[in-house]
Amino acid sequence: LVLTANSLQNLSDLDPLADLRNLTNLVLLENNVTKQPHYRSYVIHTIPQLKVLDFKKVRKTEREAAVKIFGEEKKATSALGKKSFVAVPDESGKKAKTGPTPEEIMAIKVAVANAKTLEEVM
User: Fold this and answer.
1) What is the pTM of this model?
2) 3-state DSSP call for residue 59?
3) Least confident segment among 59-68, 92-101, 104-113
4) Would you report the helix, strand and coil content of the chain in percent, each value rounded to 5?
5) Rounded Cα distance, 57 and 50, in Å
6) Could you say which DSSP state residue 64 is in?
């Protein structure tokens, strides 16, 4: 996903991307958010399945640093303000299958269907 020069300012602007479970490559160059402290660690923590960020491979050491800074589990807030959970390893080391509830999925679909602008969805 290439979001170059999209006027992203704050780290919290990136939180909705946590809901994109298949997102493995992300480019945020030419956004002010890339100048924020701990930007790269925050993105790696928020989108744990990310493999490439800004054309640079995400390294194991970066993942470890992100955990030290932000903790183990990332609970993201979706665009509708509902909680959604990013899959994190359980005790056995396997990723737990988590995600929005059926009610949250329905609320998202309704909000998208009724929205007239992008801001209404976000």
Assistant:
1) 0.59
2) coil
3) 92-101
4) 40, 15, 45
5) 9
6) H
